[in-house]
Every structure is written in structure tokens, then in C-alpha cells.
Amino acid sequence: MLTTRVLTGIALLVCLAGCGRGLAPAAQLRTSEAAYTEAMEALEEKDYATALERFEAAIQEAGLNADLFAEALLRSAECHVELGNLDAATEVLESLADHAPDMDRYHLVCCKLYLKQGDSAKARAAYEAARQINPAAEPPVPLR
């Protein structure tokens, strides 16, 4: 599992490298993007363990562009929530608090996390934050 220190270091590398694709070797790009694609397929099938493994592989390979990198982090947090790794999910979400590529999805993942932690009020607030960004946002799980 990735720790906050590792995530911060990787994020710093991505920021220093910029959004361009010319800095990473082609093989590194292909490996990262293949892992990301496999992760998204596993996530679609609700195979959260495989999805998490593949997202982390894509992140560690460090060949994703900045947007896909941040998306992989957000999706890995979602997998952590689904697998009950709530502390790990919290760490990842905290690292993305102001940098998530899709802030409404970020708030929806937070909503799931808060519900799993038993905090309905925070979950509802996270859902409302998502709706402020995207009025069509649906709650990820039924809210009480």
C-alpha cells in the first residue's frame, strides 16, 4: 500500500515533470497506461482488490500524465473505501484535497468514506458539496 510520504513524493515528481509526456520513456508510459486501463476494467467489474493493485502499479510506474495520475489516486481511494481500508483511503483523499481532477467525484468518494466511518452528517455534507459542483451528481450509496 502506498503511504502518504510515497504519494507526496510521487506527486512532487509529477508536478516537476509537468503534464507533458515527453519526459518518461515510451515503455514506462505504456506500462503505466496498461495498468491504469486494467484497473479501470477491474473497477467497472467491482473487483476492488485487483483494481487497487493495478492503480497502485500505474502510480508507482510514474508514467501517467498528471490528470491520469490524479485520477488513479482518486480511484485507488475509492477502492480502499470499498475494501474497508479506511485509514488508507483517508490518507489518499487528504493528499488530493485540492488537486483532484474531478472534484464532484472526490466529494462522492468522501461521502462513501464518511458513511463507512459512521458519520452521516459529514457524508451528507460531502454529497451536497458534490451537488454544488455537479447538480446531476447522484449519491454513491443511499444516504440516511
List the SSEs and their pairings:
Blueprint: H1 4-17, H2 26-44, H3 48-61, H4 66-83, H5 86-96, H6 103-116, H7 120-133
Helix pairs in contact: 2-3, 3-4, 4-5, 4-6, 5-6, 6-7
How would you sum up this structure, described in words?
- This protein has 144 residues and is mainly α.
- The protein has one domain: Tetratricopeptide repeat domain (Serine Threonine Protein Phosphatase 5, Tetratricopeptide repeat, Alpha Horseshoe).
- 72% of the residues lie in helices and 0% in strands.
Gyration radius, rounded:
15 Å
CATH superfamily: Tetratricopeptide repeat domain
Task: Return residue spans where pLDDT drops below 50 for at least 5 consecutive residues.
Answer: 12-22
Largest sheet: none
CATH architecture: Alpha Horseshoe
Averaging pLDDT over every residue, what do you get? 86
Beta-sheet strand percentage? under 5%
Helix content: over 70%
CATH topology (fold) name: Serine Threonine Protein Phosphatase 5, Tetratricopeptide repeat
Tally the helices: what do you get? 7
Number of strand elements: 0
- Shape annotation: globular
- Top-tier CATH class: Mainly Alpha
Span between termini: 31 Å
Number of domains: 1
* SSE run: HHHHHHH
Structural class: mainly alpha
Comma- or semicolon-separated keywords:
Serine Threonine Protein Phosphatase 5, Tetratricopeptide repeat; 144 residues; mainly alpha
Brief overview, please?
The protein has 144 residues and is mostly helical. The chain is 72% helix and 0% strand.
